[in-house]
Amino acid sequence: MRGLIAYLVGLLFALGLGLSGMTQPHIVRGFLNIFGEWDWRLLGVMIGAIGVHVITYPLIMKKKSPLLDAKFYVPSNRIVDKRLIMGSIIFGLGWGWAGICPGPGIVALASYEMQFVYFILSMLLGMKLFQVVDKKTRG
Amino acid sequence: MEVIIGGVIIGLAASIMLVFNGRVTGISGIVGEGLRLKSSDNNWRYLFLAGLVSGGFILRFTHPSAFTLISSASTFDYILGGLFVGFGTLLGSGCTSGHGVCGISRLSPRSIISTVLFITSGVLSVLLFKFVRGEL
């Protein structure tokens, strides 16, 4: 049942990403191009998504547990550390350069455009690289 | 208008995930954990990713314009961008969905700072891209 929910959420999430323009690198780049011809459209996605979730989040968290599991798996870490800062900067550099982030990249695999395939394969490689380096440095 | 509706759908999807499964809809985290292959609790992660691709196929037929590729980026640019996105999202524990949508909605200071940083470095990256390639 949890799997079915996850599948349906993925499907819904993909439709939202597609409608909002996140699966089109030129719209993402246009949004980040604030020193040029700024395309403000993606501001609408953030307002829509956060606008809904900022209201539903406290309502959901009033419950003792989610409907299909014993507890909520919500991060409780509130410390801003070097890893968060460096990671966010590196992510943003890649996001601006390719014009695509993880979710839309996966959704766009359905388009059969090879650029998205290359993007996702190298993203997986980047993740694996991180996991190997992280394991070594942490012992 | 479609953009805001898209955003509302994303917010609703994240809410459904939280109320039923108690999970954050953070895509880089889901992919990263799925890559470890060890966790016995990975089924929902693979099914979520399958849902993303299925949604992509629906879009392919109902909204083919959702995959318009207008960009002077080359294959090399997508590969370079992908490497940075993969490494950066795991180091920084999140991406646009986990930090940008879910984290900001919980008013998490980590997510607010992360989002400000990745948008800022995204702006710089686009500026650099225009400088190197001459156009967007």
Give an overview in words:
The complex is a heterodimer of chains A (139) and B (136). With 139 residues, chain A is an all-alpha fold. Chain A has one domain. Chain A is 68% helix and 0% strand. Chain A is built from 6 helices and no strands. In chain A, helix 2 packs across helix 4 (82-98). The longest helix of chain A is centred in the C-terminal third of the chain and has 25 residues, at 114-138. Chain B has 136 residues and is mainly alpha-helical. Chain B has one domain (2-133). In chain B, 75% of the residues lie in helices and 0% in strands. Chain B contains 6 helices and no strands. In chain B, helix 2 packs across helix 3 and helix 5 runs antiparallel to helix 6. Chain B is globular and about 50 Å long. The two termini of chain B are 25 Å apart. In chain B, 58% of the residues are buried. At the A-B interface, helix 1, helix 2, helix 3, helix 4 and helix 5 of A face helix 1, helix 2, helix 3, helix 4 and helix 5 of B.
List keywords for this structure.
heterodimer; A: 139 residues; mainly alpha; B: 136 residues; globular
